[in-house]
UniProtKB/TrEMBL annotation:
Species per Swiss-Prot/TrEMBL record: marine sediment metagenome
Protein name per UniProt: Uncharacterized protein
Amino acid sequence: AEAYRNNDRILFEEEIADTFIRLLDIVGTLNIDIEAQIQRKMDINFVRPKQHGKVMGDVVARKLIKENPKEAACRDEAPR
């Protein structure tokens, strides 16, 4: 947090890396399937209502609808 406040990008990036290392250590210790949990959360975020002025899947959804409207309609009808 101090590196961010001081606009020290190099130290801030180091702190972010340290945070990831610690999180991955916890994930390993607790035997969490982090890939499955991230996918689950991304799926939830993709369809949830707009929050804080943004939709997590909004950019992806617009691209999907533009490229293949039929597939997008099927996604909307899929059970969750």
